[in-house]
Specification:
The protein has 3 helices and 29 strands. The strands form 7 sheets. Strands 2-1-3-4-5 form a 5-stranded mixed sheet, with helices on one face. Strands 8-7-6-29 form a 4-stranded antiparallel sheet, with no helix packed on it. Strand 18 and strand 19 form a beta hairpin. Helix 2 packs across helix 3. The chain is globular. The chain starts with 5 loop residues before the first helix and ends with a strand.
């Protein structure tokens, strides 16, 4: 059985572009896993990590939009996993107001001492998200995720298209409607660019689009498969899969196109590259040994080394810039689960963090704590956000077609 990956799905139902020497059906038939039975709920024993949270009072905010701002701020703080909203007492209290043009809040210690002032202007949701992130940063020293966005693929329009939404599933925007199919999106860590694979009209090329607006530029149009691009930490280069020389292999090139460098040379197929936090290594999936496992290779070139060996089927890695953990899809019990592994430890099997339904395509939030992934139940796929400490998942998409392949923005 060959492995399922973002790159494999990118090649489905499209003929391979001709190339010198001929390459029959470049990864076009490797898609198998989508019809596997879901993993039974409760099949795995998952340890819940208990962590102290900050109890904070949040009386209704004043102003014309106070009620809605209170709802959004409550959700942002609680979904961070770092705060618990209480009716009385608590470690801190929040006072403030909101209008259609912004939100202003003050946070006080339990003794009445002013702790911080936070504000945001413009669109109400964005303004409140900014306030939430400022509170998280000041009171915990950690990165907030309320202002981040998630790119994903949906077939709501009848074909696979690119969409972007707020981290909580609100304010969905569509992009790339002129292409016959779009797959495999990836945000830059800076949040200002999205790479994706598009069929124009039927062949897979890699394009880079400025975000939130701008014209997409084709950066990889080699014969055969161009897919699965991910940005280096500084946004200057892409790692991707190309099949122009035969087998699907991992390459890097400039985010603007050019400067191509081949990294892998195997008899198998490589896919789903993802960069280490410092940009010196790249993790990827390879089925060189028969079934896919996670491998790591220096981004400057060198020999790849296998990271996982158990269970027999691991793919779709995503390397957290904050925690250093690699999340990936792992086949267990006939379906996919979400697992994580520390690449610095000498272990060959990761820890299962979510196993209800068939779960794939994990992508880390910039806080290194939350993951977004696609969960399929009864043949329908939606996106979920997982708190990997609490082991609690929140559904993000509903009634928006089949939603898959999420990619979290870096900020």
């Amino acid at each position: 059985m060959t492995h399922r990956s973002r790159n494999c799905r990118a090649a489905i139902s499209a003929p391979a572009r001709p190339r010198p020497g001929g390459l029959a059906a470049i990864l076009l038939l490797v898609f198998l896993a989508g019809f596997l039975a879901p993993v039974a709920q409760g099949e795995y024993q998952i340890e819940v990590i208990k962590q102290d949270v900050i109890a904070i009072r949040l009386p209704p905010l004043g102003g014309s939009e106070g009620a809605e701002a209170t709802r959004i701020l409550t959700q942002d703080l609680e979904q961070s996993g770092l705060f618990r909203i209480v009716a009385s007492g608590g470690d801190h209290g929040i006072e403030g107001s909101a209008s259609a043009s912004g939100c202003q809040c003050k946070v006080f210690k339990s003794d009445g001492t002013l702790e911080l002032t936070a504000s945001g202007s413009g669109d109400l949701r964005r303004a409140v998200h900014r306030v939430a992130d400022e509170i998280v940063a000041k009171l915990t020293g950690r990165k907030g995720i309320a202002q981040t966005r998630i790119a994903f693929i949906s077939d709501k329009s009848g074909k696979k298209g690119l969409y972007v939404m707020d981290y909580d599933g609100a304010k969905v925007q569509g992009f790339g409607t002129s292409y016959s199919m779009v797959v495999a999106p990836a945000f830059s860590r800076q949040g200002d660019k999205i790479a994706f694979t598009a069929y124009r009209p039927v062949y897979p090329d890699v394009l880079v689009m400025p975000y939130p607006g701008g014209k997409a530029q084709a950066v990889s149009t080699y014969p055969g498969l161009n897919s699965g691009a991910s940005f280096s930490p500084d946004g200057s280069r892409l790692a991707l899969t190309l099949s122009k020389d035969g087998n699907p292999e991992i390459y890097t090139l400039s985010a603007g196109g050019g400067g191509l460098k081949r990294l892998t040379t195997t008899r198998g197929g490589e896919s789903s590259p993802t960069w280490s936090p410092d940009g010196k290594r790249i993790a990827y999936a390879s089925d060189e040994g028969g079934r896919p496992q996670i491998h790591i290779i220096p981004s400057s070139g060198g020999r790849g080394a296998r990271l996982t060996s158990s269970p027999a089927y691991n793919t779709e890695p995503d390397w957290s810039a904050e925690s250093g953990l690699i999340a990936y899809s792992s086949m267990r019990g006939g379906g996919f689960v979400i697992s994580t592994i520390n690449p610095e430890e000498e272990k060959h099997e990761g820890d299962v963090v979510y196993a209800d339904g068939s779960c794939e395509d994990p992508s880390w939030a910039p806080d290194g704590r939350h993951l977004v992934f696609s969960r399929t139940v009864d043949g329908h796929s939606d996106l979920y956000m997982l708190d990997t400490y609490r082991k609690e998942a929140v559904q993000l998409t509903r009634d928006f077609g089949n939603c898959t392949q999420p990619a979290w923005s870096g900020r």
